[in-house]
Amino acid sequence: MNFIKNIPENWKGLSSAKKSAIIVIFVCLFLSAVFFFYSSTRIKYAPLYTNMDINEAAKVVEGLKEISIPYTISDSGTTILIPEDQIYEVRLNLASKGLTVNSNKGFEVFDKSDLGATDFERNINYQRALQEELRRTILHIESIKQARVHLVLPVRSAFIENQHKPQASIVLELKPLHNLDPVQIKGIAELVAGSVENLSAEDVNIIDTTGRVLSDLIKDENNDQIKNFADRRTFEESLETRIQRLLENIYGPNKVATMVTADLDFNQKETSSIVWEDEGVVVSEQTTQRIVTTDNNAGIVGDPITDIANVPESSQTSEISSTKNYEVSQIVEKEILAPGRIKSISVAVAINGDIPIEKEAVIKDIVSAAIGYNAERGDTISVTSTTFNTNDEVEKMIAEMEKQEAAAQKQKQQERLIMYGLIGAAILAVFIITLLAIRKKPQEQVEEFVQTTRDTSPLDEVIPISQIKKESFADEYEKVKDIIDNDPEVAVQIINSWLEEGGKRE
Fold first, then answer.
1. Interhelix angle for 87-96 vs 54-66, to 10°?
2. 433 vs 438: CA distance, rounded Å
């Protein structure tokens, strides 16, 4: 208790240098205590998943929100961090809900090179990395939910006869109500074939999770079918683009959705017809005339002539025949129908918001003019007004991730500033203490020593006789001698100050 009561008096008795040193030391101790308390109570975050696809990250964040787990985002949304002591529990919880994330590594497996790795290990790592890179690329196709790629890369041989062709197998999991057309399947095969040396598209086998062999659709015998499908889809997309641009100029962007289905006839047909004219053209004409003359003067042998005067002398007959040759006129018509003829077109148009009935008629007229509407071939146009779902959850998730990442970066920056401030304060405190100790005036040392000797001098206080007997004059003498030997200048100043005080008292 006496110590506590004497604190103000002892503080007043300290020099300014000691007071400054004590204040700086207490400030440093306080700041250190605050920093260590903040560090010990701060939540330590560790990566839950890294190198994620943005869609996978969005699903994981939704799962963390459902179970109320704090998280932060880093690496532009591809890494999610949660409290370090909850990582394994959260992974099991998310796995039970089907929110598993692929943790395979692509070519980043070579970021950390192992000098002791063998050629076999390097080849295996290259194969695994290539498989993962192809899988990530295939997942960018809209209809594919998950994919797995297997590559067979034969070992290179110095002999041509021992060379084997590489092969690839791909398993695709499609999204609900989605399907792949032959053009997309061929694109996947060409992608993998172009990424692996000496691999041809024919050696790429593609199946889906239902067991269907999708690569059968791109065999050689079906090339015409693939081309026809691509031509039909190109024609449909061209009409969709024309209608979309036309209506967006009226209702604004993202207010119109269009879908065109075209029925095209890719069969080639040839038709021939012959038309005969009614009248022909005379090519040649032939006329024949025959004249026969008979003489009646000669009588009949053995017949007596009874009346010669009554018998005519001769008779004559004539015969004329004519022949005409005609060339019959005919017209031969030959018509070849090229493949890709339009059999019918169906158009569906959806408008965001409510539109009156008369507006629907105007839209149908616009679409009819754009597609070349023909009622005889069975074209149909459907116009519907509805409310679009404009909530893009992925974009909101990305914005939230970026916001959290910015907050995390700001927090890290504040922590660094606090650390630098503490270090700077400590350095400044040491500098001030050192400076004060160096620049301490000899007069202050004298006054401090005089004050100390006054406090302990037997002339200024009453000392009991029993205590005087215990103290030895020799000990006091030795102390004074040590002071004079170690610091004679201070001793001289002390003696001068005593003489000055003695003169003042007289």
1. 100
2. 9
> What residues have CB less than 8 Å from 384, skipping those under 6 apart?
348, 349, 350, 351
Specify burial of residue 159 (Cβ count, 10 A radius: 0-12, 13-18, 19+): exposed
Distance CA 430, CA 255 (A): 69
Question: In this structure, are residues 429 and 24 in contact, taking their beta carbons and an 8 Å threshold?
Answer: yes
HEC-encoded secondary structure of 290-314: EEEEEECCCCCCCCCCCCHHHCCCE
Domains along the sequence of the chain with CATH: 20-101 (3.30.70.1530), 110-219 (3.30.300.30), 230-267+339-386 (3.30.300.30), 274-292+318-336 (no CATH)
* pLDDT number for residue 346: 92
Residue with tokens 């970021």: 111
**Phi and psi for 226 in degrees, rounded to 5?**
-65, -45
- Rounded Cα gap, residues 317 and 296, in angstroms: 14
CB 138 within 8 A of CB 191: yes
Whole-number percent of the chain with pLDDT over 70 = 67
Residue-wise pLDDT for 242-286, tens only, equals 999 989 888 888 889 899 999 888 777 777 777 766 666 666 777
Instruction: Tell me what pLDDT residue 40 has.
Output: 62
| DSSP element (H, E) containing 60 | helix 54-66
Distance CA 505, CA 501 (A): 6
Tokens 């015409």 correspond to what residue? 224
- Nearest-5° angle of CA 77, CA 78, CA 81? 85
DSSP letters spanning 346-358: EEEEEEES---HH
Backbone angles phi, psi at 271, to 5 degrees: -125, 130
Lowest-pLDDT range of 24-28, 103-107, 129-133, 405-409: 103-107
pTM of the model: 0.42
User: Which amino acid makes up residue 341?
Assistant: R
pLDDT, tens only, 391-427: 555 556 566 666 766 776 777 777 777 777 777 777 7
Mean pLDDT of 206-213: 90
